[in-house]
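Co-fold these.
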Amino acid sequence: MAAVNNASLFSTLNKAQTQAVSSNAPTVAILAGPGSGKTHTLTSRVVWLVDHVGYQPCDVLVATFTVKAAREMKERIGKALGGGREKKIVLGTFHSIARRYLATYGQRIGLDPKFGIADDSDSRGIITRICKRLDTKIDPPAAKAWISKKKARGTVDDAPTKSKAFMTCFMEYQQHLERANLLDYDDLLVRCVELLRRYPSCVSNIQSVLIDEYQDTNGVQYELMKLFAQERRRITIVGDPDQSIYGWRSAEIRNLFRFLRDFNGTEEISLEENYRSSSSILDVSLRVIQQQRSLRKEPTGRGGLDRLQIKRAKAMSGGMIKEDDVAILLRSAILSRHVESALGKSGIPYKMIGGFKFYERTEIKVVLDYLRIIHQPDNNDALARIINVPKRGIGDATVKSLLEEAERGSTSLWKLLVKHCRGDRNAKTTIRKQTEQKISGELLKLINNLRIKWADAAKGKGFDLVELIEQLLKDLGFEKHLEDTYGDEYESRWSNVQEFVALAAEFMKDPSLTEEDALPDIASVEQVRETDVLAKFLANVSLASDKQTDSENQDKPLVTVSTIHAAKGLEWPMVFIPAVYKGSIPHIRSDDDAEERRLLYVAMTRAQALLYLSCPLYGSHSSNDALQLSPFVEDLSATQFLKRGPSFERPTMQEVGRILRRELPPEDAIYKGMAYMTPIEDNLFPDPTEAKETGRSSTGASSEARQLKRHKTHHISNTGQSNPEVVEGWNAPYSTTMQKSSSFTLPGFTTAGAHHVANPQEPRPKPGPAAGPSRRPVSNRPPAQRTLRGFVITDHDQSKTTSEALGPILQPRRVLGQSQSVGNRRNPIYPTQQGTPLLKKEASGGIESALTDHKLGSAKITSRPTKMTPSEQPQAVPAVKQYACFSSSPTKPEKDEEEEATVVLAEEQTRPASCFHSTTVGAPQALGFRGVKRPAGLSHEGIAPMDRLKKPFKPLTIKRPWRKGAVQPVYDNS
DNA sequence: CTGAGATCTCTTTTT
DNA sequence: GAGATCTCAG
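Predicted complex below.
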């Protein structure tokens, strides 16, 4: 069997991947950059382990970090493995796997098998209450973060005084959870570690452990991984430190070291050679960008909105690009509102991933809380939340005092209420007669009834989860309640509830879709079989806080709107990142700029062919300040903002088609299809001059902003469902355009012709249609690939290497021509540009060019004499969008540069869309027009991924007992 | 004390 | 643009 399977298995793998998949080393570390086929490699390895090595699927454990990744992994393994065998694999997020072990074996460590999961809002609520009660000055969110860190990491280093208050809070919190029989997310991991330490037999069957996105592991997860694998110590990890974006969740890149240290003889494999496809993407994208650049000279239009771009892209590609090829990635989920409403108005179908939490909706939470109480009446928090929903005449004050009373008496709220209604309570808190009746009759009775029914159901009385929920809704008069509370808005709320019921039904139909299957039986180890569907359902809700909507919408192509975090591991032909402004990315509340930078990097590398970054000019709410472009792209944008949005001209689309390996329909077919709409050019936005005419010259940012706001409301009420393309884009007078544009609060627009494009790996040798996807030799190294090692070096030798490597970049100002973007080491990137490579040392020292090329912003820093002083910088910013295009096309002729300077100058007053172009380097201009002082260097703190790329490559310093390719450890695969 | 209406405040990312 | 919090009438 092996032979046949292997053939097909390896046919889709390149050499490095093959090596990774079929490695016989007990521990394998696969280090790879974006787009190098990590997931594919990992899934293939699972297949190999099962089909070739011969492990039972149930003896293989695969852990991921996000639900989506788990789902995808399962699907892909399922496809590759066949026969539904993937269901036997212990696969899921760390949390979900931990939960399964705890549910099955947790009793051994004194866990009540009916434990519930305290989700984020539960924890927050509990901690907030504790903080209030303790009357400490500590900030609940801070306390929460501290506690979580402490659990996830084991230690927290901070001032002892701080720790003390936090510690008290921590202990109270823990007690509270225990009383309510809850585990929070961190507890799932911590307790599972405890379990597996004390009872290794629970995982004695596990032959091999595989970890996806290893760079996201935190301390506990690392322990857990080791414990999962304790029987055989066979582990495969896959990761890319540059995509480490979960530092806030205590992910520690350091775990890579630990891994290499703890597992001597780890085989390390870089998936460099597989960068082929991406590399050709780079190459081709280059040309795409060029096409766009050539358009810049036409003075027709500028700016644009992604929703329009989407339509245009679709039209101009004759349907080659469809909605589902497009993703809009956001730093924060809240931003999706704007995007969603804009998409909605344009009639573009979309789906939202991440951030948007169905189960967090109030109406759903109420139902869930009832279910949780039915499952476990002692859940005080849940009970307290719904005790007065629907209104029963109990107010906050009473609830609070009841809760305190319960706490004092070491009992639960539920028990207290039951007692009270039976009349054996020495009332400390008075409850009114009327209220008492309601509680007794409507709440306690209702819940008790359902509990009894549910208990009977367990004995096979044919009462399932859906019926339970429906009964609950009926008994509660929930629809009426919603109507009373939400008025005309109630319909959507009620439909959410109905959707929830449908989800429950789906869950019942096929629990394995949403939730894992039972853990494998282990001879001689006794298990508690999870029989309670309700428990599983609730756990699933807590651990997979998003619904799966895919099933119904699969026929229609949908644009994806997603948080960047949730987009990790995915890719799309066309990607928009519409909020690249300071405060969003890096986020205002983030204290780790390097991580924010990686985040942007992750976002950008999701793009296969087309990448657009944009920056709105104003915040959406009451901010008087114009938004500033994210410092991460400052240097890029300074040179690469385009006046206009992208043009999806035929040559461009042809290249896109090549990248995607799709066929672009013939020209006539395309134009036939777009008879009545879609401007070919993106000229939504007025010229600077026109902007002035519309009365938009500087009157101060704040009044502008206000004006904007008015426009916004105005617009919303006035624009019907008419074809937005026509209305706004084309025939409408500018005033309308402005209104329309301002209605979209993420308007500014920075196109980036693919991140890759921003930094060409090579000079385009002969820009010709020959640039096919597979043409490039595999020697091109994916930049990020090395970085894992780069990182490793970093820890040892950081200061030195870094400062040397980054020295030139850190220099804030340089004179034109003196420095140059970091191009390909072997070949100066832009033939026409003068200047020397930034990193001479490396240039001679031989890091691969690609490593440095990959750098996003800083690789491109070049500068020229400042043309304007800071005092010339504009104060006011009219409402026009900015478009930026990251490109890497060759230097423009001098003339062009002059032109550009002029354009930028014009923007000084009127702030039209500004246009940057990487090749028309001009950071100072950007400086000028934005009125921002540029930081001394991009990489002021931490080592951003792209910066790390600049470090010379060194092999890992960790000693290993054998060399690659030499003696391999023998599998004891008896 | 409750409940309705008004006002303030925020807003990361995921399990 | 929703949630938490505050204010005041009953």
